Amino acid sequence: MSTNSDISFRDSVDQMFNQAINLMDLPAGLEEKIRVCNATYTVRFGVRLRGSIHTFTGYRSVHSEHMEPVKGGIRYALSVNQDEVEALAALMTFKCALVETPFGGSKGGLCIDPKQWKEHELEQITRRFAYELVKRDLIHPSQNVPAPDMGTGEREMAWIADQYQRMNTTDINAKACVTGKPLNAGGIEGRVEATGRGIQYALREFFRHPEDVSLAKLEGTLDGKKIIVQGFGNVGFHAANFLSNEDNAKIIAVIEHDGAVVDAEGINIENLSKFVKKHGGVRGFKDAAFVEKAESVLELECDILIPAATEGVIHPGNAQKIKAPLIIEAANGPITAKADAILQKRGTVIIPDMYANAGGVTVSYFEWVKNLSHIRFGRMQRRQEEARHQLLADEINRLMRASGIKEQLSSSFTEAYLKGAGELELVRSGLDDSMRTAYQFMRETWHSRSDVKDLRTAAYLVAIERVADSYRTKGL
Ligand code: GLU
What we know:
Layout: H1 9-21, H2 28-35, E1 39-49, E2 52-64, E3 70-77, H3 82-98, E4 104-111, H4 119-135, E5 144-148, H5 154-167, H6 194-207, H7 210-215, E6 226-230, H8 234-246, E7 250-256, E8 259-262, H9 269-279, E9 289-291, H10 294-297, E10 304-307, E11 326-328, H11 337-345, E12 349-351, H12 353-356, H13 359-373, H14 382-402, H15 411-418, H16 423-448, H17 455-474
Helix pairs in contact: 1-3, 1-17, 3-17, 4-5, 6-8, 6-13, 6-16, 13-16, 16-17
C-alpha cells in the first residue's frame, strides 16, 4: 500500500509525542531525554549462501532504559531502516509503560525478504544476526529481550534462544533472552494468539463504556458489528477469528497484499485462513467477492476498522474517505500524524497502537517471568484448586440432600466449576486484566481533562508520566 505520507514514521511518532508533551509540565531537559532514542546499533554481516557471500544489514535500537531489560520485536522486511526501527522502539517504551510491563523500549530489524530464502538459509542468517547482537548484550535476559514482529515468529525465536545458549552455556536464565519461543523451547501458552486476543479484549473493554461507544457514534455491544480487517497475518487472523467466533461480530472484509475479499454477511475466517495458508493470498477465495483494488476497501462503510499490517496505511491521501467511526490500531503506526488529525476532526474514535497491540508484549512479559522462575504457570496450584472446589461442591450436594432437596448441582456446572486454571487460562486472565486496567487509565485521562481530545494523547500522557516518574525516582 502506498503511504502517501509527507513525513517519516519517526517524525510522525515524534509529532504525536510532542502533542502530548505540550500538555504536560515536564522540564525541557527531561522531555528531550524521554523523546530521543538512546542508541541504535547497525550491523552489516556476511553469510556464505548459494556459493557466494551475501551481506545483510540489521539494526537493534534501544529507545529508553528507564527499566531493564528493554523489550521489543525483531522485524524481517526489505523495507526495514533505522528511522523505522527507532520509531518502533519509541512506541515500545510507551507501550510497556502503558500496560505496566516492567521494560524499557527497543526494536530490531533485518533488511531481508524472508520469502526469498529457504529455511536452512534463514536459520544461518538468523543465527549470524543473533551472534552479532548477543556479543554486544543486545540480546540478553536482563538487558535486551527481543520477540517476534513482522516476518518473524516462533521458529526464528527458537534459533535466537539456541544461539544465545550456545554462547552462554552456564547461564541458567538463558531461555529468558528472547520471548515468543515455541512451547517446547521455553515458550508460553497463548503467546501466538496474544496480540489478536489483546485486540478482542481491548474492544470488549471499550464496549463496556457506553459513554465512549456513543462518542464513536455506535451503540450496543460487539454483537453484529461490521468489521474490516486490513492484514491477515498472525494479528489480523487471530483478532478476526476471536471477534467473529466469540463475540458474534461480522468480518465484512479482509484486505491482503494481493487484493481484498468482501461479504456483507460476514466471512468465515477459519475457511479464509485455510485458503490463505494454501494459496498465499486471498485471490480465488470462492465464498466472498474479490476486489482487486484492495486499498479502496479501507473506505467501505463499517463499524470498526482494524488495520493489522504495517505503518502508514491511513495517510492524508485516504483519511478523508475512511468511513469507519471506530479504528483500532492492531499494527504499529498504521495512521500517520496528519491522517490522525484529519480523522480526529471528523470525529473518528481511534484506539491507539501503543495500547491496542500491547497484548503481544504483555504475554511476552509472562513468558519471561516463566523462564526466570523455571516453572509453568498453574503447576503448583491447579490440582489444589480443583480439590478445594470439589470439597465445596460435595458439601453443597450433601446439604441439599440433608434438606430433602432432590436437585443436585448440574454436571455441566460442576465440570466447569471444578476445572482448575491451566497456563492458557492464566495467561488469558492476566492479559485481560492488563488490557482492562490500561484502558481505564487512558479513559480516565481522556475524560477528566478538557485539553485531552483523544485516546492517543491520553495514552501518551499516561505512558510519558510513568517514564518520567521512573527517571525522577531513579535518576538518569
Ligand atoms: N513485536 C511486538 C510489538 O510490537 C511484540 C514485542 C514483544 O513481545 O517484546 O509489540
